């Protein structure tokens, strides 16, 4: 297996095969050396990657066929979920915001986590879509330098930061965390891909479609603050822990920034794809 892809099926940590069509139970293939708990695997990421690298063709050939609908959130119990606002130049422009001089941080709550293909229950008439690149921490710490930050990252995955704009802007100042933390508003997945194996990690293509129509399309090099800068900034204030989730911001094209505005409707299907990381498919109900 060229690189580790950590998924979750039936509550158990699994490797996703190179073909992306099967999965291998991590605890079983490691002979009990690694845990079946995805969170424990993130704490032991170096060993997870070693086991993945040493998997044989026979191991992959004996994999269980993957049903994407059975994939669960690959990071089910993070201590902290951080998110960065206004972190793409084009998004700042569409929202008529100046470029920030330091990362704009809010949080999302664990109770909002959703699976890669889970349904999103809309509340009200102003729920919006936000495609995001997500970083998952393996090695925690404080005061992590930008030059060392990638060494603290387990992997990258795809995220949707579904947002209830009515709730978000119900008061002054805005309630970002509440507006983005309704049940099911934080789909993550479809798996976590080892960041060290991604030669493209600094410039990934990202696309969001709503019911087949492309709404967002960008390269992640449009970020204002890249992942190492974000980790350095966050860790200068908060201690980071294995399994922490960092949503790194959304590009231009969100529904609230369009003329006329385009919010999610029941029956819409949100497809969020990032190069080399996979696709989330979330139906709105």
Automatic annotation (TrEMBL):
GO molecular function: isomerase activity; metal ion binding
InterPro entries: FAH (IPR051121), Fumarylacetoacetase-like_C (IPR011234), Fumarylacetoacetase_C_sf (IPR036663)
Keyword Translocase applies: no
Domain Fumarylacetoacetase-like C-terminal: residue ranges: 81-283
TM region positions: none
Keyword Acyltransferase among record annotations: no
Family annotation (Pfam families): FAA_hydrolase
Keywords: Metal-binding
A single GO BP: carboxylic acid metabolic process
Annotated family: Belongs to the FAH family.
Name of the featured protein: Unannotated protein
Organism: freshwater metagenome
């Amino acid at each position: 297996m060229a690189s580790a892809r950590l998924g979750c099926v039936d509550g158990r940590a699994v490797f996703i095969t190179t073909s992306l069509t099967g999965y291998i139970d991590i605890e079983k293939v490691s002979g009990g050396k690694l845990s079946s708990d995805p969170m424990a695997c993130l704490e032991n990421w170096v060993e997870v990657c070693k086991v993945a690298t040493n998997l044989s063709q026979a191991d992959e050939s004996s994999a269980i066929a993957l049903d994407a609908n059975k994939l669960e959130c690959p990071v089910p119990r993070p201590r902290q979920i951080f998110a960065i606002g206004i972190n793409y130049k084009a998004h700042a422009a569409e929202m008529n915001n100046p470029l920030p001089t330091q990362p704009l941080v809010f949080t999302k709550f664990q109770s909002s986590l959703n699976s890669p293909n889970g349904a999103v229950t809309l509340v009200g008439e102003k729920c919006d879509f936000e495609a995001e690149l997500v970083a998952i921490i393996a090695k925690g710490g404080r005061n992590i330098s930008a030059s060392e930050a990638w060494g603290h990252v387990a992997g990258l995955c795809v995220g949707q930061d579904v947002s209830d704009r009515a709730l978000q802007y119900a008061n002054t100042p805005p309630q970002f965390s509440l507006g983005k933390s309704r049940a099911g508003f934080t789909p993550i997945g479809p798996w976590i891909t080892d960041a060290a194996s991604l030669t493209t990690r600094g410039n990934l293509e990202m696309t969001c479609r709503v019911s087949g129509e492309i709404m967002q399309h960008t390269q992640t090099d449009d970020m204002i603050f890249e992942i190492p800068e974000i980790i350095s900034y966050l860790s200068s204030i908060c201690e980071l822990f294995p399994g922490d989730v960092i949503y790194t911001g959304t590009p231009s094209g969100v529904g609230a920034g369009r003329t006329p505005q385009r919010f999610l409707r029941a029956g819409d299907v949100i497809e969020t794809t990032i190069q080399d990381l996979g696709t989330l498919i979330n139906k709105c109900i």
